[in-house]
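Chapter review: from sequence to fold.
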Amino acid sequence: METYYYSHFNHAVVHVALFDGVTNAAAIRSRIVQAARNLGIDGNTEREAVNFAFIDARLISSPLHLQTAIYQALLSEAQGQLRTKTVHSEILWALNPTNNITEAIRRYGVSDASTTLVVVRVDVSDTPDLQRRMCDIIQGSMVPFQVLGQMTDWSIIKKHYKLDSELALKEVQGNRDREHSIIDNIVVSSVAMKNVMA
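The token string follows.
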């Protein structure tokens, strides 16, 4: 698990973990939906238990891509301009190339078929037993963040960002590393500019 500190955003602490071999994605998704529907103390307890951003790791092109989305979500929260209900769903919204919140959650959030997940927790202080809490929810293996690149599905990213006719990619066709670098530059820039363009 990695931890990032953002002292200029109300001393935010962001914990990020990468999971592989996830076998209970459908149960996680169901639990999130149910927590959103529950009212009262039980609802609050369950919402806190799943108070994370669950992101399909296949759609993250690089650590910078994820960090840019986190930064944009923190910035929106600090300015009182969240477009979604929570900073965690705002991260999903920031990752999506369109402004459709439902589409962002469907595309970038946990789906019934997810086998790799990036799990993000934004807080104002270090949360005790956070790693254990993540592992209690997710049936899978926590792996080093350095293996993220092996999980990325570049074809889906190209599809979501509509990059199939991108001239820069056509010029480097056949050079996979260069193509991935260009795609990463485009999606990171898109995430960084989204708040300005929205």
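Two observations follow directly from the output. The longest strand covers residues 12-20. The chain has ten helices and five strands.
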